[in-house]
């Protein structure tokens, strides 16, 4: 039974979503630790005019017909739709709303993909299969070490997820009834989420602590049969595609992913088969404000340029580099990058693309990742401080915060999201990334967690500032966002991935949380 409890607890950390409640809806636009967006609009923007700002969303795709994104989708006015020609001579045929690097002209799309470590394994396996260390020449030693590293990681991850998958068959039959029984025994028939959170766990009783965590998830609607079924689907997909060394989907687009001069691939189907992630990100940036539909985006005069380059698996370096350059060349001022990975085969090319954007005064906003690891010490791509190269001034890396300012170890709550990556040399600022309700395809909405949600908060703030203060450069806007953040140095939090308390200031460069009101106040001063 302990193994079952651990399996479910681990899955809950991955990031599930339940139904929205009034406390969650638009909390990120509210008072601190929200961003005080509404306060900023009322104080500074009531009678101001704005200009439209283009934000490129490099992601899984976007539902460009969503009811809450209407009027906020970028359109390439220099391209004549459906004529099969490259009217604007930018190298892309019929790129009316952006481009997909994951589809072909015959209507097929890449949806599932490997992790980068699996691609590395598949590339090196023919060279090292059956060999031992004594067989390896000096010039091949680095590749051999990498091959051994990824081989061990793949084996370990496959075994871990196989174990979790085995337990899922018993979850609905054993865990849910057990949680219901425990709740009834402890609280009777009448209890609330607040009551469950006050459950006093006996010191040192790890089983009871896990039971409380599951009870909170159950009462809040995060642990249901639907959630368990979705979890099983996710785990199966990871085993079948992400970690499967026999699976390779790249033949669908037909390019050579190692040749960055081979650029005549892709299609104009920007939504793709699974646009959930990219649509959620876009809604955070600019879902129509005040229309009583779903959530309110941060910015109110944005056009989303859709660049589909992130599958269910790790993105390809080539797709990302080309998407960044497309965004810059076609007028985007902000590029949202809610993706990342632990390995990169072509980091130089991605670095040069990001530098190209920064050199052209385009802000890159990158999600830090959800592995609760210190990315000062562990690899995380793309990154600014790459192998001694000069830092990219307009690349920001964003950590995820929650709506809970006070640290509560028993409830598992605190200002820093439990999943967020961190680093006092790598993270520029924190932004809301937990329990974020936003748009999903087919006019729907969901609550999701992740630094993927925190990054578009910052992209939205940057777009808002550029929209109302167009004379500010993106460098000035970046500096405003960092300088005016709410200072939480010395604030006690539960450290991500740990059960100990620590200083929020140790998790980023400056210990700050982004704040729209303060940004607008500073921008107003600078504009005068």
Number of helices: 13
Q: Which structural class do the helices and strands define?
A: alpha/beta
Strand content: 5-15%
CATH architecture classification of the largest domain: 3-Layer(aba) Sandwich
Summarize it.
The protein contains 13 helices and 13 strands. It is of the alpha/beta class and 528 residues long.
Please give a structural write-up:
The chain is an alpha/beta fold and 528 residues long. It folds into two domains: 31-113 and 249-527, Peptidase S8/S53 domain (Rossmann fold), CATH 3.40.50.200; 118-238, no CATH class. The chain contains 13 helices and 13 strands. The protein has helices spanning 2-15, 37-45, 116-128, 141-187, 193-197, 206-219, 225-242, 276-286, 317-329, 347-359, 451-468, 474-483, 516-527, and strands at residues 53-59, 98-100, 302-308, 334-337, 363-367, 395-401, 429-432, 436-440, 444-448, 486-487, 492-494, 501-503, 512-513. The strands form four sheets. A seven-stranded parallel sheet has the order 2-3-1-4-5-6-7, with helices on both faces. Strands 8-9 form a two-stranded antiparallel ribbon. Helix 9 runs parallel beside helix 10 (347-359). The chain is globular and about 70 Å long. Residues 1-18 have low confidence and may be disordered.
């Amino acid at each position: 039974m302990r193994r079952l409890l651990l399996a479910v607890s681990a899955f809950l950390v991955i990031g599930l979503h339940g139904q929205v409640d009034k406390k969650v809806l638009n909390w990120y636009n509210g008072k601190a630790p929200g961003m005080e967006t509404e306060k900023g609009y009322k104080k500074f923007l009531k009678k101001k005019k704005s200009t439209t700002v283009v934000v490129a969303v490099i992601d899984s795709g976007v539902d460009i017909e969503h009811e809450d994104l209407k009027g906020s989708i970028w359109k390439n006015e220099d391209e004549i739709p459906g004529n099969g020609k490259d009217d604007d001579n930018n190298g892309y045929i019929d790129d009316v709303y952006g481009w997909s690097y994951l589809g072909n002209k015959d209507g097929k799309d890449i949806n599932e993909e490997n992790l980068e470590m699996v691609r590395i394994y598949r590339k090196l396996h023919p060279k090292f299969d059956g060999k031992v260390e004594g067989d390896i020449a000096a010039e091949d030693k680095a590749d051999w070490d990498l091959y051994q590293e990824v081989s061990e990681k793949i084996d370990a991850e496959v075994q871990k997820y196989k174990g979790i998958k085995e337990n899922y068959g018993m979850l609905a039959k054993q865990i849910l009834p057990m949680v219901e029984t425990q709740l009834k025994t402890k609280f009777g028939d009448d209890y609330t989420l607040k009551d469950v959170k006050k459950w006093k766990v006996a010191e040192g009783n790890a089983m009871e602590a896990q039971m409380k965590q599951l009870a909170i998830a159950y009462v809040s609607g995060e642990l249901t049969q639907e959630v368990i079924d979705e979890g099983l689907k996710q785990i199966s997909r990871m085993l079948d595609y992400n970690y499967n060394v026999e699976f390779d989907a790249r033949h669908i687009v037909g390019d050579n992913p190692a040749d960055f001069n081979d650029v005549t691939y892709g299609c104009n189907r920007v939504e793709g088969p699974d646009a959930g992630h990219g649509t959620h990100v876009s809604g955070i940036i600019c879902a129509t404000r005040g229309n009583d539909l779903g959530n309110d985006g941060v910015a109110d005069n944005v056009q989303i340029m859709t660049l589909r380059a992130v599958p269910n698996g790790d993105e390809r370096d080539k797709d990302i580099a080309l998407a960044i350059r497309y965004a810059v060349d076609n007028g985007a001022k902000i590029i949202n990058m809610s993706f990342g990975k632990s390995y990169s085969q072509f980091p130089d090319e991605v670095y040069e693309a990001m530098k190209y954007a920064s050199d052209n005064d385009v802000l890159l906003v990158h999600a830090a990742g959800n592995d609760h690891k210190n990315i000062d010490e562990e690899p995380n791509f793309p990154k600014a401080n790459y192998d001694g190269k000069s830092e990219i001034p307009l690349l920001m890396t964003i950590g995820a915060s929650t709506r809970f300012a006070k640290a509560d170890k028993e409830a598992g709550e605190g200002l820093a999201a439990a999943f967020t990556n961190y680093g006092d040399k790598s993270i520029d600022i924190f932004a809301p990334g937990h329990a974020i309700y936003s748009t999903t395809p087919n006019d729907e909405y969901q609550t999701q967690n992740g630094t993927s949600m925190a990054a578009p908060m910052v992209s939205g703030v940057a777009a808002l500032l550029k929209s109302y203060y167009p004379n500010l450069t993106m460098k000035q806007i970046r500096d405003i966002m960092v300088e005016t953040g709410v200072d939480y140095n010395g604030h006690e939090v539960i450290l991500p991935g740990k059960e100990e308390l620590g200083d929020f200031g140790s998790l980023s460069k400056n210990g700050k949380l982004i704040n729209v009101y303060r940004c607008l106040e500073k921008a107003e001063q600078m504009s005068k």
